[in-house]
Amino acid sequence: MSRDLRPLHRQALQAAGERVRRVRDGDLLLATPCAGWTLADLLAHLVGQHRGFAAALRDGTAAPEAYRPVPFTQDAWASSADELTEAFAAADLDRPVLQLELHPTRPLPGSFLLGAQLLDTVVHTWDVAASLGESYVPPPAHQQVVLELAERIPDGAERRSEGAAFAPARAVPGDGWDRALGLLGRDPASVTAAG
């Protein structure tokens, strides 16, 4: 996947922001599709990831603490999303970056980080919507990229370990977006039931 995904990533962050702006204080203790995480946990994780990725893009790497969760507020979300967008806009996507969570020792091109962030943003937007009892279907271009990336993620024993980025893949009927969700351990039917 050699094309520049920055426009799609910006659109995905905007779509995520639209969902996040609906979150009220009373929603923060809602369960999410991420096992054991409340909506507050998920949003704090996302804000921390935005800041950590931005730091790694700017500096070539970032310490593990750079990715730590940041208590969610609407302002924290908005500023972290802006910071990440600006970091990708300024980045040379061919430049290797050591992103410790993606690989602890091997620098990866900025374009790889961009794909990982795009996938995370789109899927976690679905998670936020599901937590609120709503459905979310991303635009076809986002679906296609996420499916292509999800098909490359190994589905091994590491998915069953504590703190794994994704739950084990699920076999789900259909293709496209439902298949992408299943590959990432989500149950597309759970939202329909909820909302």
Structure characterization notes:
The chain has 7 helices and 2 strands, in the order αααββαααα. By secondary structure, the chain is mainly alpha-helical. The model has no long low-confidence stretch (mean pLDDT 91). Helices cover 51% and strands 2% of the residues. The protein has a two-stranded antiparallel sheet with strand order 1-2. The protein has helices spanning 6-20, 39-59, 74-90, 110-131, 140-150, 177-183, 189-194; strands at 96-97, 108-109.
Key descriptive features of the protein:
195 residues, mainly alpha, 7 helices, 2% strand
Distance between the termini: 34 Å
Beta-strand segment tally: 2
Question: In percent terms, what proportion of residues is strand?
Answer: under 5%
- Mean pLDDT across every amino acid position: 91
Q: What structural category do the secondary elements indicate?
A: mainly alpha
* Overall shape: globular
Q: Major sheet, described briefly?
A: 2 strands, antiparallel
Poorly predicted parts: none
Report the C-alpha radius of gyration, rounded.
16 Å
Helix content: 40-55%
What topology, given as strand order, has the largest sheet?
A: 1-2
Question: How does the SSE layout of this entry go?
Answer:
Layout lengths: L5 H15 L18 H21 L14 H17 L5 E2 L10 E2 H22 L8 H11 L26 H7 L5 H6 L1
Antiparallel strand pairs: 1-2
